[in-house]
Amino acid sequence: MKSSFSFLLIVLLQLIICLSFPGGGAAANLEEICQKASSSSVNMTYDFCLTSLQPIPGTREVDTKGLASITINLSISNFTSTREKIADLQSKATDQSVKDALQICSVRFGNGDASLKIAQTSLGQDHIQDALSSVRAAAGSAVVCANAFSERGIQSPISDTQDGFLLCNLAAYIIQLLA
Predict the structure, then answer these.
(1) pLDDT tens by residue, 124-164
(2) Where in the sequence is the signal peptide annotated (predicted)?
(3) Helix count and strand count (H, E) for the chain
(4) Mind listing the pLDDT tens digit for each residue in 115-126?
(5) Residue closest to 62 by CA, chosen among 165, 178, 140, 179
(6) CATH of 62-176, one of 3.90.550.10, 3.10.129.10, 1.20.1250.20, 1.20.140.40
């Protein structure tokens, strides 16, 4: 039920975004952007980019700024669900190393979530470099979380960290197109 509500909320947010950026420029070519993003990054695949963005209403109609906004919102949604998963894991963890790593992740994903919200505001105000810096900071949060587990020799129970990292990198790539 919670995930259905979250999905509905995301779709609603995307619709609002689409209406907020009407015709601010030519519509972004989703396939072309995904191709360029995947060829410019060793971590990004064309399929990840396309499957992340294509199902969202409006991604074919918005301009590049609108697509950047949609991608930031996807990142926020990912970070929020990852934070919920971290909180659940923290309540069940018994091993101190796991607890320590989860605490680091909780703090970093909280910071990353705040950075993404700043990025969204900055993008809306056409502060492109600020938006880019904030998205990159959020991507770093996902990396720090993954490292918190690997440095302790623990397999991360949070698979969402990789998607968060990739979504932030995708948002950064699209924002760079605006610079």
Answers:
(1) 999 999 999 999 999 999 999 999 999 999 999 987 678 99
(2) 1-27
(3) 7, 0
(4) 999 999 999 999
(5) 178
(6) 1.20.140.40
